[in-house]
């Protein structure tokens, strides 16, 4: 039995936007930056009308510079903010890998836990939209192999909102890969800011011993 008072149907994109809105209403440190996320509302319409509610100081349209977007987010996180960066297509996250892999992922460990990088980077990925070779890749596995980065890939609107909210509250850099074909399908999603659990993936090595 679905409780209509606490749950209703949202698309994947709508669930992400609701999560962004709830996080920004709750915490003034949360802001968004990326290409065409303001008045245009994002390449896939995810940020929508957020700029009208929060203004251009918290919904920042950036130049076309993925390296700069990642670097600005890392710097803001180190200064106590909670930035959410958007890379318009995950293919171009390759241009920001130096900042993400060599800086964001390592800062907490280099400083013995005295500094952290509580940032989120969102990026649409995957093929199926006819967007050709440089706009259709799935690169999440690269980043899942980088110690210090958390990587999530939501499958449903419920996951998309819950994992986003958990990522924003996490003290570590979190990369969220959103498959482009999931943007429009709808499913039930809670109205309240419900989080999904984020955890480090631990690998256990099994050593064979002689009989």
CATH superfamily: Thiamin diphosphate (ThDP)-binding fold, Pyr/PP domains
Q: What fold name goes in the CATH topology slot?
A: Rossmann fold
CATH architecture: 3-Layer(aba) Sandwich
**Structural class, from helix and strand content?**
alpha/beta
Supply the number of structural domains: 1
What's the shape?
Answer: globular
Number of strands: 8
How many whole angstroms does the radius of gyration measure?
17 Å
What is the CA–CA distance across the termini?
A: 54 Å
Q: In CATH, what is the class?
A: Alpha Beta
The helix content, as a percent range, equals: 25-40%
Major sheet attributes:
6 strands, parallel
Number of helices: 6
Strand content: 15-25%
Q: Can you describe this structure?
A:
The structure is a single chain. This protein has 211 residues and is of the alpha/beta class. The protein has a single domain, classed as Rossmann fold (3-Layer(aba) Sandwich), CATH 3.40.50.970. It has six helices and eight strands. The strands form two sheets. A six-stranded parallel beta sheet has the order 3-2-4-5-7-6, with helices on both faces. A two-stranded antiparallel ribbon has the order 1-8. Strand 4 (82-86), helix 4 (97-110) and strand 5 form a beta-alpha-beta unit. The chain is globular, with a radius of gyration of 17 Å.
Q: TL;DR of this structure?
A:
With 211 residues, the protein is an alpha/beta fold. 31% of the residues lie in helices and 18% in strands. It has a single domain, classed as Rossmann fold (3-Layer(aba) Sandwich), CATH 3.40.50.970.
Features:
single chain, 211 residues, alpha/beta, two-stranded antiparallel ribbon, globular
